[in-house]
## 1
Amino acid sequence: ANRAFHPDNSIYDIAGRQIGGKDLAIIAGPCSVESESQIIGIAEEVKAAGATFLRGGAYKPRTSPYAFQGLEAEGLELLKIAREKTGLPIVTEIMDPSTLDKFVEDVDVIQVGARNMQNFSLLKLLGQTNKPILLKRGLSSTIEEWIMSAEYIMAGGNNQVILCERGVRTFETYTRNTLDLSAIAAIKKLSHLPIIVDPSHATGLRYMVEPMCMAAIAAGADGLIIEVHNNPPKALCDGPQSVTPNEFKSIVNKAKQFAALA
Ligand code: PEP
Ligand code: MN
């Protein structure tokens, strides 16, 4: 992952879209896949607004075992239908090695969530695949630990790692996490890997998503991953941080103008 071995930025071509090149990658969709009409409806709206990838959790890492755990295998099937309808490549989180073959077969970008950033056996297995991996920063992980987790994947021969800053735990409780914008500059100095920013999980607050997107672009991020829901108050997960499709559209328009200047 060290830039010393690879002075140029890494750029990946994923199902006809680039991550790490000059165009901003925009990954959008609900926290969780909830139903066929929900995921297809949101996929169509985010595509029309300019998203380049569709996100949606099928296997969810919930803090409480009594909270909605995701539609699991059915969720993956619904994501495939949404991809078929919209042409958007799909990004979704893997939780368990037992589903690895299915993810390799069905998913365009495999997400490793913050809670699994140091699940080294999972990282080693992902290193044996040929799929791009979106590696989220751990809840309380240092930049060094995060890069070492990318190394676990790359050491197995899979060089397609995308880093995602999603906020870290601090003393502050007003926001869900604290977005570490300086991590973008640090990663750009230390590594050739692309870095994207998740303002949704970083802040936990819908009204902060737009300003943190612009800040991320100004700091040099290669892309954004944004939670979008058609009815946030009724979302089964992360409603308070989800923007509506209309809000998402105005964020994308502004983000593109910002990116042209950055
Ligand atoms: C998510 O992207 O839905 C998610 C659970 O994020 P994180 O792992 O960053 O908490
Ligand atoms: Mn979420």
## 2
Amino acid sequence: MARTALVTGGTRGIGKAICLALKRAGHRVAANYAGNDEAAKAFREETGIPVFKWSVADYEACRDGIARVEAELGPVEILINNAGITRDVPFHKMTPDQWREVIDTNLSGVFNMTHPVWNGMRDRGFGRIVTISSINGQKGQFGQVNYSAAKAGDLGFTKALAQEGAKKGITVNAICPGYIATDMVMAVPAEVRQKIVEQIPVGRLGEAEEVARAVLFLVSDEAGFVTGSTLTVNGGQYLV
Ligand code: NDP
């Protein structure tokens, strides 16, 4: 069944692959982004998917942005919390701003986006929420105390909210990708990337489309019994 889907950080990387997969599956898709207008324009022209600019770190902006999306495409039935940033630095050098920026976007952003769509989903008796967490939220990562804390928080958020949505037809799930070949990972120095690949049993970085396929499964009408789960997509790098 065709649904209305909103993907945060949908104009690049994993979010872009998710938007394309949802569109191919017949859904009405909207892509949010934060500041890279050039990438958003190119995405819009390439895919025909409408783009909406606001920061997920800002609750009021999320409420207003979601209202704009709903006016154009109808009530949001599928929400993909994908927007995320890194501010990597060892803890002894981490500034309060580097902590806050990552928590505000990667953890509070999930609250800011989910809260305004929640009551509508409850009223309609259907909803699909998928949050893109990370392998580093599961295992922790040197230089990513802020990021690992936020992504682990996303998993707690998912498990708690899943219990609240269950009787209302709303599933809430998380995906923990391993290392995926996007701008975020390609920004890591090549020699560090090589060391990362050596730790992945499958022997390569993942593709954004491989995460998108996992999203498609979780948002399908047929996946109504799958809720509160963490789906690992990491080439066997970390097994829980
Ligand atoms: P990219 O850096 O390639 O893209 C990030 C996207 O998020 C962009 O569209 C960006 O918008 C958007 N974004 C960033 N901050 C905000 C904000 N405050 N409000 C709205 N949108 C925002 O990231 P990836 O595709 O690599 O990552 C996507 C998600 O997957 C993230 O949550 C990341 O933590 C997670 N992840 C990624 C992994 C990887 O290996 N790549 C591994 C595990 C998890 P703009 O273009 O305007 O900057």
## 3
Amino acid sequence: MGNIYAVTNQKGGVGKTTSTVNLAAALADYRKKVLLIDLDPQGNATTGCGIDKENLSNSSYEVVMTESKAVDAIVRPDELSFDVMPANTDLTAAEVQLLDVKLREHRLRLALESTREKYDFILIDCPPSLSMLTVNALVASRGVLIPIQCEYYALEGLSSLLKTIERIKQRANPNLEVTGLIRTMFDARNNLANQVSRQLINHFQGKVFHSIIPRNVRLAEAPSHGLPVLNYDRASRGAIAYMALASELMRRDKKATEAAGG
Ligand code: ADP
Ligand code: MG
């Protein structure tokens, strides 16, 4: 049975969705069975996978809020080699409705129980907040992937994310771990980016992934074609970087699974 990873950072625009979609595609390219779960009401990962978010019969909203089965919300987009549980603005209502349901922090974990075993990797694209949806993703996950844009305010907010992770680890999910920090949209010619990158490494040491995601226009263009960058321009620097990151993630995943005795 595969591990579940939450891709999260409550800051918007740091590369969560780009990382989720392109890691999913890269892992699938390595022949892994992958499910991407869109848990952001903006539905950017859904659109980025070529799915029309206005015409969903089932979505992550139904899975989290109703008795609807996860498998009924999962689709395989034509041109892709991984599965997607899409989302749209319906999910906005879940933020509030979740406050009133039983086991409100465990809804996603429970909904995935029977589906998990079909996959090697499940990646959850989180909304830009530490809301009940993000809490659901963290309770369901084994690892957390944190995309970080190396700029002045990058470290701000990171401590509240780490506190949330620690709290969930103590209360609801003892196995939860930060698997790695991903440096995104990196510009090696920028002094500040290099400085922040060094700070991250000093502070988080081995947690920072060695693979760096460069700023690459192909990565920004691909979603408008409804495709991961691997399908859009396989030779681009962005595609190569996400392949390298996926291979690093597979190594960390294997280590974590071995350490857990699985
Ligand atoms: P988030 O999900 O954290 O809000 P996104 O993944 O949507 O962030 O990225 C924010 C914007 O930056 C998007 O327009 C996306 O296409 C662009 N972007 C993300 N990563 C890169 C990159 N490495 N190079 C260039 N543009 C990027
Ligand atoms: Mg996003």
## 4
Amino acid sequence: MRVLVTGGAGFIGANFVHQTVRERPDVHVTVLDALTYAGDEASLSDVASAITFVRGDITDSPLVDRLVGEADVVIHFAAESHNDNSLSDPWPFVHTNVVGTFTLLEAVRRHGVRYHHISTDEVYGDLELDDPAKFTDQTPYNPSSPYSSTKASSDLLVRAWVRSFGVQGTISNCSNNYGPYQHVEKFIPRQITNLIDGVRPKLYGTGQNVRDWIHVEDHNTAVWAIVERGQIGRTYLIGADGEVDNKSVVETLLELMGQPADAYDLVSDRPGHDMRYAIDASTLRSELGWTPQYGSFRDGLAATIDWYRANEGWWRPRKDATEAKYATMGR
Ligand code: NAD
Ligand code: DAU
């Protein structure tokens, strides 16, 4: 099987490529990635000899057309992925998330190639802290930020291309991932690397916001389950029942890194900050037989701390620029 992975030099895509090379010798992976500020070819250095890497933009229609024509399956991870950046400068989000997805859909339509679309639970907006509900594939779309609205737009393009043009497509909407190779702009790596540098963690607002954490390896086994056994046209929600509020995440990181549990700072809140995400992944479990393997969030965090301690050469080059960007946002 020949798989085209867009965004394979980013966090989830790179973990997906590692897992695929490790566990699926029958699969040849081609990565298409523009190497934006968020992409790093070094994230693929361990598997470089086993894959084909193409540096390019997913809005480059001739390039995309050629690569899609050489693939059996396209798995589309590439995106502008960070909410805070989307509030400062939304255009790259429209370009990559909307125009890029359109470009891929037109290519898979021309070539009749199977397409899996990676998306986010943020398309559903947010839940109240005391709401017993979780997101399902019937929850109405209600995105809050430029990031989540462009991801919602891309999901709707996929649904239309499946229905109107018969594209062989599936969609997954996953909750917050953590694990190795995540950019230091994101919550957990930002706090781990701050603590390594002797800087206090920074919590937005009151720290009450809840995210539904899943290890990136579990996200990626679910993606393979959908690619292999998912029903064309369906949307699958991916989550591992990992709801934790941000304050508790920071307290756990502080404890695991040998600091007092209150050694963090509250900083100004993210405008439009979603309060809570929660995923009902029962369809994925019951219909596709998927189960997450990372049972303990605390153990997963400890392993992630170890990874950032052992791989300072990977994250250090981006740390100062990331913090300089946050300084301009007052966060
Ligand atoms: P990331 O920002 O770490 O990586 C994105 C990758 O896409 C980078 O390698 C970047 O170079 C590449 N890219 C960006 N624009 C491109 C373009 N125009 N052409 C080609 N490549 C381009 O993102 P991530 O956290 O790994 O997220 C991957 C996907 O998963 C995204 O679609 C995101 O919406 C989705 N998702 C992420 C999470 C999460 O918690 N991180 C959760 C659910 C869904
Ligand atoms: O839910 C899935 C989404 O999860 C993905 O679609 C996005 O690509 C991914 O970035 C993530 O979005 P969030 O906005 O939830 O993730 P982030 O890591 O930016 O922040 C997680 C929570 O932590 C959020 O409530 C904001 C808060 N936060 C973040 C940072 C960077 C802080 O309190 N302090 C921080 O320094």
